[in-house]
Amino acid sequence: MLSYLLVRLILNKLSKSQIITIGLSGGSLVDLHASMLPRLRLPWARLKFFFVDQRFVPFTSDDSTYGNYQSKLFRQLPLTENNIIKIDANLEIVEEYAKDYQNKLQEALNGEDKACFIFI
């Protein structure tokens, strides 16, 4: 039922916007999304993903939301790096990291596509 509602929501939003930007939470939701999303028939090229609770850790850390989604979900989907809004792992100062990520999210929100945001 949840996956049906998600598909309806995304397709409805895509009828009004070229791109849908989806905020993903970490923790136990990574496994839920990894089991559900690959089964959905969606226009993946028109979806972008970002992380609502990414920590200032390397992508290889178990605490990295991006790292967990990369290893458990994104490899199962027909996505490219253009579909994923992530932090710059080369930045070493947390303030630079936060500012860089903020700029990327603002660019996605204010881009000419006028992306619609959904949080799951």
From TrEMBL:
<dbReference type="InterPro" id="IPR039104">
    <property type="entry name" value="6PGL"/>
</dbReference>
<dbReference type="InterPro" id="IPR006148">
    <property type="entry name" value="Glc/Gal-6P_isomerase"/>
</dbReference>
<dbReference type="InterPro" id="IPR037171">
    <property type="entry name" value="NagB/RpiA_transferase-like"/>
</dbReference>
<feature type="domain" description="Glucosamine/galactosamine-6-phosphate isomerase">
    <location>
        <begin position="6"/>
        <end position="110"/>
    </location>
</feature>
<dbReference type="GO" id="GO:0005975">
    <property type="term" value="P:carbohydrate metabolic process"/>
</dbReference>
<protein>
    <recommendedName>
        <fullName>Glucosamine/galactosamine-6-phosphate isomerase domain-containing protein</fullName>
    </recommendedName>
</protein>
<dbReference type="Pfam" id="PF01182">
    <property type="entry name" value="Glucosamine_iso"/>
</dbReference>
